[in-house]
């Protein structure tokens, strides 16, 4: 397996609280890896750590062969793109202005604007189907359109690896599928390595080449969706009893939740 | 006082009784502080002696010092501080906004503009007023009412957000302040000194005539306050629930705003723009007496009086013989407190 | 498949339009600067102004032109440009369209520092006072932003409340210092009202390097500032060193607003109004926004300075009061439109 990123014995703490502990993970080049798990399991922290937004307490993250701690900010930004969770920009910014921001890591004081920049912006907007919105203001877009524009901005960055932190959080069902289909296409047609954080297990199973389950800051399981989508494992990680069937359309495993089996939310506590 | 007759349960009656006991204690402190305020100065006069002078004894010199110089100053501080505090209490209740106070809602700025326009329009060529000084609080009141009306008309629906409402108040206050500055420059020297003394918020150089004007105005306003006070509790509710209890909130609000502007105008008409008392005194009052409204108003008044007398005393102790505006002390104490309220997370929306 | 078929039309920056706009603003500024020399209580012909500058003969007209009108014709645009750029920086840093050196208390902090420096430490030299003003603005910005950060990141509206409150506190400190020290009152009262009148040419010349350095830093940071308009995670994801950019921006803001306060006193709300006009003209890209803000700011204050001579003719209003009325009204408008 060709590794895009390898995480070794990574521990991250906020003050005294440990967010993730001793995680080992290899992210395969050209594949879609989805980090899944219940709220607070550390999946977003892991994703952000891969983009060096958190300093590790111990352990190491390598980009290919290089430790990312040795890279310059802009250099790293030319390798890994990040779509943050609920990103924000001024309402009166135009779509094109936002997508242009993606070129920042490629520009220098002496070479502020090149033909390559213009091409990348054009390509990114075309690829996400927002070219016709170029002059529109962000405040006038629908949630689905806005998310496409943000993805266009990350695309314009022209990185091999794209990290997306819960990109479909606030979208309705049609736009969720739309957005993830777009991400899947970028992966298949352009060979981008994609790392996604999703909390919807069925969406995760549908789009992942490889699924990673996390719980309480540790990695619990890691493998193809068919291997991981087992009833006992899901009950253990997500605290929910369920049935897993095969989705008749996409032939992917599909989880049907039955009831909450976690003691925290179960029947009234004994005392 | 027949509490049972008013239909209060024993528990509520107990709360009420405790509240009034607290008010009585605060009243004693107010009197003690006022005696200190009169006693302190270039020569110390002890409290017993002051009481004797007040009831008509003492030497001529003592009588001048106490009755002409010091007592009016303390009296105006007590009345102005109290009025400002009650105005703050009403505004906080009716806007359901713990950050509201006359200062930040542009009321003081508006009152200032009113006074300066009054002085500018009604002075003759020799720079003396063509009308009685009694009308100065009326002018301040008109200015204050216009300012608060502007704040609420402009903010519209946004008035329900505490922080937004305050920003509207700050913007209106800034415009009023700039207009005041221009008018002061247009005006001849007499008006300028009169107005700038006023704007700084000082309680020195007060005479009994001015105290009388404030006292009479305040007495009238307080009748109105007591009348609305009995209907204040339902304003804690939202608009629909209040209507359900038979209170027309929008109309009632206008009434309360008018009263609050009147109180603020009286307070600042001679004492000038003293900040933060209208914010702090009501908070402290609620902390001490709890929810009963009348006791809350009484406690606010007394605590406001204590704060301004105290602030005036502090500047006299620290800076004598220079006259530093008492507003400085309230600003130094009020700023951190206000910041604490603003920065406290999740306190109010906005 | 190639991602792009290159006939989709995406406009590359419209340079020509912008050049025309900037030249237009520059010409307007020159006209206003000329008017600032020519009109006021007395009117002067172009020939007379030319002679006063080239062949000074000591006549009353020449003294008025050279010693009274010329300094303010130069200082007004300088202060306007400085405050305009400072406003852009502050609004981007706080992601807040109603932030400005005034609403965040920086101008009041600078004014307090000047009063302290000259009152308590006897600083009298112009560079010394400018440095004090810049230090005051820097300290206030660190205080306000620091408090906001310590409270766990507060909303744009709240940060303005914090700033305005500090401004009030500094104002009352200034009042105390001035009341206690009456000789200073005479010297500083006029300065505190915010005006370009009765300033010496040396004051403008002394402010110039501060404005140039501050503006230069802002321009240098332009592309990073573009990114700063998004959220922190996105900005870091694009490789912006947030700490460095913020730190340098604070220094630039301090130099710009400190220098303008040292020159003219607090000229209110210029830093609030100008960035809005600049964005309306050129959009959100900082490279353009900063240049536009400098030009628009210069035009605005020069115009305001001329207007101030006539609003209460024959007397002169402080220009700070004129800009405060305009800015206060704009603030109300912005709040009403929920722009912030």
Automatic annotation (TrEMBL), chain A:
Q: Which InterPro entries match?
A: AAA+_ATPase (IPR003593), ABC_transporter-like_ATP-bd (IPR003439), ABC_transporter-like_CS (IPR017871), P-loop_NTPase (IPR027417), Siderophore_ABC-ATPase (IPR051535)
Q: Which organism is it from?
A: Aminobacter anthyllidis
Q: Which GO terms describe its cellular component?
A: plasma membrane
> Keyword RNA-binding: yes or no?
no
| GO biological process, alphabetically ordered | iron ion transport
Instruction: Report the transmembrane regions from the record.
Output: none
Q: Which SUPFAM superfamilies match?
A: P-loop containing nucleoside triphosphate hydrolases
Name the Pfam families for this protein.
Answer: ABC_tran (PF00005)
Origin organism lineage: Bacteria, Pseudomonadati, Pseudomonadota, Alphaproteobacteria, Hyphomicrobiales
**What region holds the ABC transporter domain?**
5-241
- Gene Ontology MF annotations: ATP binding; ATP hydrolysis activity
What is the protein's given name? ABC transporter ATP-binding protein
Q: Does the keyword Amino-acid biosynthesis apply?
A: no
Keyword line: ATP-binding, Cell membrane, Ion transport, Iron, Iron transport, Membrane, Nucleotide-binding, Transport
Mode of membrane association: Peripheral membrane protein
UniProt-annotated location(s): Cell membrane
Q: Which family does it belong to?
A: Belongs to the ABC transporter superfamily.
UniProtKB/TrEMBL annotation, chain B:
SUPFAM superfamilies in UniProt: ABC transporter involved in vitamin B12 uptake, BtuC (SSF81345)
List the GO terms this entry assigns under cellular component, sorted alphabetically: plasma membrane
Membrane topology is:
Multi-pass membrane protein
Transmembrane residue ranges: 20-40, 74-91, 103-122, 134-154, 166-191, 211-230, 251-281, 293-315, 324-343
Q: What Pfam families does the database record attribute to this sequence?
A: FecCD
**Keyword Transmembrane helix (UniProt):** yes
Chief location of this protein? membrane
Extract the InterPro entries matched here. Answer: ABC_BtuC-like, ABC_transptr_permease_BtuC
Name its cellular compartments: Cell membrane
The UniProt entry's GO biological process terms, in alphabetical order, are: siderophore-iron import into cell
Please give one Gene Ontology molecular function term for this protein.
transmembrane transporter activity
List the keywords (alphabetical): Cell membrane, Membrane, Transmembrane, Transmembrane helix, Transport
* Segment forming the signal sequence: none
Establish whether keyword Transmembrane is in the entry.
yes
Q: Which family does it belong to?
A: Belongs to the binding-protein-dependent transport system permease family. FecCD subfamily.
Q: What is this protein called?
A: Iron ABC transporter permease
